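Researcher: For the record, we're logging two predictions in this thread. I'll number them. Prediction 1 follows.
Model: Prediction 1, sequence and structure:
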Amino acid sequence: MVVLLDCVSLLVLLNSSCSAALAGDTESPIVNVTLDPRKKILSWNTRGIVTRQTCAIVTPLDPDDVSPNLQVRNNDSYFCTFRNAVLHQGATLTVNATSEGQEFSCQLTFKNPGKEGSGAQNLSCVIYNIRFMNCSWMRGPAAPADVRYQLYTWASLHGSVSECGHYIQDSAGTRVGCHFDELGEGHTTDDYFFLVNGTSSDTDIQFLDCPPVNGPRLEKYNPPANLTVKHNVSHYVIRWDAPAIRYSLSNSVLRYALDIQKTGSFSKREPVFLSRQHKNEYRLPSSDVRGEHTVRMRVQHVQFQIWSEWSSTHRFGVPEKNFLVVSIGLAVGAAVLFGMAVMFLCKRFSLKKKLFPPIPRVKQELAGSFLASLEETASCGGHPPPASQDPEDIFTVEETQSLASGPAKMVGPAPDPDPYENIPSGRPLPSQ
């Protein structure tokens, strides 16, 4: 930490003139008018009886009078603070007072000391990764070759001043930037003040100042994290995580930009902007996605202009050359699943029997009885059915040459004994 000693040299009284509203020899009660350019504080003393006092400032960047409230240090010391004034282009400051019924005015004309065009230009700073800050500026067009710039910053009007510890140089060795390693804990009330002055062995160097900037306005967020895309048949659901930020702010103050493009397409779609999101989600209808697409995101504060870098690109959807194959595969898969579901339901709830009832059949026992009755009926008629007839025995009779040799012999199996042979005649035959 370095105290801003160079600014003390600017604590000067330049071309001040004090006069009374009416001509006369009355001495002005306003004395010792001084300006602290770093703190933008105009101070003076009074003598005698002063009943009313005011102060004002006019600058080229703000031609209207700015009249802040006057403050008192002690009985005869007063000051005004112009915290938002920009002084590097010069300023005119005025103190008015009333003493013993007479109006007095003291005017101070402030000019930036040094050679015109020697000071730094286009100062800009950004906070990133929560605790780092980078600042950059351009070398003045009239700056000498040996110019040496210094950057000072402080986070409140009366806060301690720090000089840059890591300067960035251009190819000529001139300081054109600065890196701050550690900013400490951040508060939403932080107002950063910046001042760049310079030194040279040839001439005085003009300083460069700027209005205070609120800390959250300087922060450049990291890209949204954990970007994912999932498909739920009807939509592609894009989700992400909000970035970690330095200041305690609600997610509703963040504004997102989604860049969704079709791979290989020459026409570009406009980014989709989402503000004040309470749920980090975006749904893209499946009907809007034909072929492979890419998505990336960035984020900013809804009230500020600094965008984060783009996130890494995420691909989703199906390439068009595979779209027909995938569609057919999905259709076949759906048909198979439907068939399996129907089979399961049929088995589970016996829908097959309800839809296709079995044809009634005659039981085997009844069929056997019925066939036996048919056979019996046929036998009583004297003509047994062909299937029930006993096989016939075929005999061959051989004749002998002489009856003396005895009766003819039957060649073949012996005949079965006649069951009715020994039954006396005149009796009825037993029923079959």
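Researcher: Logged. Prediction 2.
Model: Prediction 2, sequence and structure:
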Amino acid sequence: MASRGTVKASGNFNANEDAETLYKAMKGLGTDEDAILQLLTSRSNTQRQQIKAAYKTLHGKDLVSDLKGELGGKFETLIVGLMTAPLAYDVTSLRNAIKGAGTDEKVLVEILASRTAQQVKDIVAAYREGNTLEDIAGDTSGHFKRLLVILLQASRQQGVQQGNIESDAQALFKAGEQKFGTDEQQFITILGNRSAEHLRKVFDAYMKLSGYEIEESIQRETSGSLRDLLLAVVKCARSVPAYFAETLYYSMKGAGTDDQTLIRVMVTRSEVDMLDIRSEFRKISPKSLHAMIMGDTGGDYRKALLLLCGGDDA
């Protein structure tokens, strides 16, 4: 499958030369932020890891520590994100989400609903060093925790079970709209265990049966974190790029910007499906992703984000 990312590996790549460019950009008085951001947004993550290794060999210093020493604020967070290997980035995001008092459920929801089965398995394996699987579910509880644990198993059925489409749709209808109260367990079992292509067919059957989109029913029948997670699972089953377009849109819509979310999505999707996210973004927003970043951010932070965005969709 061709990458739908905006960031590609650089053709005539030389890790040592890049390491030198970065060293010069940070040497002496003042920092050449522009040189840093232009270089790092035009290399793939794999290449950035090679630059990190070359930098250590040539200068005996850690590139990320040096970058942290020279940069600050949101721009620093973004650059450090770009310098982190994807798996380590997800694991760190999850660790930070469940560290300390309370859990940042938004991060758990986003990562566990949108990553591929293999990515979730890798996350769990990396996380397991010193932790159990259940630790990722943090101090969550109830149905929300149950669905998280199911998603952490990363063992969705493959393909479409033709014979179960109708019965799954009916089970969801009976568990929600047709019942006084809600049987959350049914929603969790079906949405947590069926493949994306199977679920898309179930959603169509559900619409015919009930007259509602499954999202409308989830909105009405559930609440809180469970609702957020179920909706994210449904949206990712329909289209992962559309899910991220919406996530980006709400990170910037209205007063203030949710920079943590903006950074996390731009870093993690720039080599995966940013082109598709941009076209989905255009369907839900009067402005392009490029224009929205332009209006919502500033300075080197904005410059780097726009390079990750990779172009405007007027």
